[in-house]
Amino acid sequence: MTWDQMMVATTRNNNLSTNNKFNIPDLKVGTLDVLVGLSDDLAKLDSFIEGVVKKVSQYMADVLEDSRDKVQENLLANGVDLVTYITRFQWDMAKYPIKQSLKNISDIISKQVSQIDNDLKARASAYNNLKGNLQNLERKNAGSLLTRSLADIVKKEDFVIDSEYLITMLVVVPKTSYADWQKTYETLSEMVVPRSTNLLFEDNDSGLFSVTLFRKAIDDFRHKARENKYTVRDFQYNEQEMNADKEEMTRLSTDKKKQFGPLVRWLKVNFSEAFITWIHIKALRVFVESVLRYGLPVNFQAMLLQPNKKNMKKLREVLNDLYKHLDSSAAAVIDSAVDIPGLNLSQQEYYPYVYYKIDCNLLDFK
Question: What Pfam families does the entry give (predicted)?
Answer without folding.
Answer: V-ATPase_C
